[in-house]
Design brief:
Length: 212
């Protein structure tokens, strides 16, 4: 489990491609300070398992399903990546519940500076918008963000200066792809309504009538 608060921006040192899988070696002295074999690291929002490490780099395997479903397949040596270690039970919970299981991808359609903020309009892959609500949470490339506007299958989010400077999203531009993880609670609610709405009485209209 992660929070969506990025700890470091690492650099892809090397990658090995299989027929459908990958292995990434990423440099980040900060992240490997207390890493152990088998630890979970969020790489651009994708939960990956540490298989090797030194005092400067760590290696993770990427299985075929993850390669297919995320932007990890687009990475090249030298690419910058958002990194977050799994949440500590003793740590502060600063973002929202992020599993590291990517739901799909999005494409940046518009980038606009407004005073101290940068607004991004992102077109979501088919089916992802149903899990979004205004002022709801979403993880984009592993960064916990708030949805300010929804129009069909496009959402608008805003980056404060610190997030713009300290994550890779601030360096991305129109046309580039991002990883999307929808809010975990929202996904469970939608699935519950789809599967059991007729038998439990929990429907979209019922939730709307009661202020949800």
């Amino acid at each position: 489990m992660f929070t969506g608060i990025i700890e470091d921006v690492g650099t892809v040192q090397s990658l090995k491609r299989g027929v459908q899988s990958m292995a990434l070696t990423i440099e980040s002295p900060k992240i490997v300070e207390d890493v152990q074999l088998g630890d979970s690291i969020s790489v651009n929002g994708v939960c990956l398992t540490v298989t090797e490490f030194t005092n400067r780099v760590f290696t993770v395997d990427v299985m075929p399903e993850t390669v297919k479903a995320s932007t990890i397949r687009l990475l090249k040596p030298g690419a910058k990546v958002n990194l977050e270690r799994a949440m500590s039970a003793q740590g502060r919970f600063g973002g929202h519940f992020v599993s590291g299981h990517i739901d799909g991808t999005g494409t940046i359609m518009k980038k606009e500076h407004k005073e101290n903020a940068v607004y991004y309009t992102i077109k979501l892959a088919e089916g992802l918008a149903q899990y979004c609500i205004p002022k709801g949470s979403i993880a984009i490339d592993g960064t916990s963000l708030t949805i300010f506007q929804i129009e069909k299958n496009e959402i608008t989010i805003s980056l404060i200066p610190l997030t713009h400077k300290d994550t890779i999203l601030g360096q991305k531009n129109v046309g580039e792809a991002v990883n999307i993880e929808n809010d975990l609670i929202g996904k469970y609610i939608v699935q519950q309504i789809k599967n059991n709405g007729q038998t439990t009485g929990l429907t979209a209209s019922f939730l709307a009538e009661n202020g949800f």
